[in-house]
Amino acid sequence: MNLEAGFRFIIFLALFGFTNYLIMLKRYENDLKKRKMIQKNRIAVLYPKGTFINA
After folding, report:
1. Sign, CA torsion 37/43/45/50
2. Distance of CA 41 to the CA centre of its chain
């Protein structure tokens, strides 16, 4: 009985950890996209419209 509970707990921890990893990876990718867009917009403000960067 205890061995089965131990295996279930290990499986639960593995699934929980993998799910958490995927969520954090998706969040990191979204934050990276936002930072790139913000950086591009900040650079675009420095130049006249239509000359260097189209935002």
Report:
1. negative
2. 21
Angstrom distances, CA of residue 26 to CA of 19, 29, 32, 39:
11, 5, 10, 20
Q: In this predicted structure, what is the pLDDT of residue 55? A: 52
Q: Please tell me the distance from the alpha carbon of residue 29 to that of residue 35, in angstroms, as a whole number.
A: 10
Helix spans in the chain (H): 2-45
Quote the tokens at residue 50. Answer: 């239509």
- Phi, then psi, of 16 in degrees rounded to 5: -65, -45
pLDDT tens readout for residues 1-55: 699 999 999 999 999 999 999 999 999 999 999 999 999 888 878 877 766 665 5
